[in-house]
Amino acid sequence: MKDMVTKILQTSTFLCMMLSVAILTCYAGEASTVKSASHIIDDSSAAEFRMGMEAYQKQQYSSALKFFRQAAGQGDVEAIVQMGLMYDFGRGVCQNYNEAMRWYLKAAEKGEPRAMYLVGHMYEFGEGVSVNTDEAFSWYLKSARLGHASAQFEIGKALTRSSPDTHRYQEGIKWLQLAAGQCHPKAADLLQSVTNLPFDTSICAGG
After folding, report:
1. What is the pLDDT of residues 185-196, one digit of tens each?
2. All residues at 6 or more sequence positions from 129 whose CB lies less than 8 Å from its CB, including other chains
3. Other residues' Cβ atoms within 10 Å of the Cβ of residue 121
4. Cβ contacts of residue 62 below 8 Å, gap of 6+?
5. What is the dihedral of CA 59, 60, 65, 67, to 10 degrees?
6. Are 169 and 145 in contact, with CB atoms under 8 Å apart?
7. How far is 197 from 118, CA to CA, in rounded Å?
8. What is the pTM of this model?
9. For residues 154-176, b (16+ Cβ closer than 10 Å) or e, as one string?
10. Using one digit for the tens of pLDDT, what is the confidence trace for 72-125?
């Protein structure tokens, strides 16, 4: 009797182990399927964006818009920014600052530095939104901290309007140096203007 009970327990334990293995295998298979599907989507959106850029460079704006919209619909952040630019400048669609701002914000909320800069620009100049210099500065700063040269220039320009003996002014110099180091076309000139010192353009990134 005791041997029979032991055998039953052993059998039950074995069945439980087999069931656990089956469940884990099932989950692993599902995870692999999801990962594969994700790669397919990524590849698809990248291809759509690439075709959009090719059409854009040929000034085939309607075709470019179609490809960008398809890629943006799959979450491609570069395509989302490009959709904003299409509406901003009226390429393949009627110019619409409100719609441009909507696309820029969508990309900015995904952490895209260029989109953050563009949102700041829209706030600064009141395109698609009311002029709001505080919001503009806030978005420029977010972008600048992620390394966007134009945003760094805007922050530097704003801060160096302060008195030279202030901390804000010194911070502005640092931002202008960062922008100039990335070859921003206006940063080196402004940096020389506010410091009265030449900027060595040979240290320009990639220069």
Report:
1. 899 999 999 998
2. 101, 122, 123, 135
3. 19
4. 92
5. -120
6. no
7. 31
8. 0.77
9. bbbbbbbeeeeeeeeeeebbebb
10. 999 999 999 999 999 999 999 999 999 999 999 999 999 999 999 999 999 999
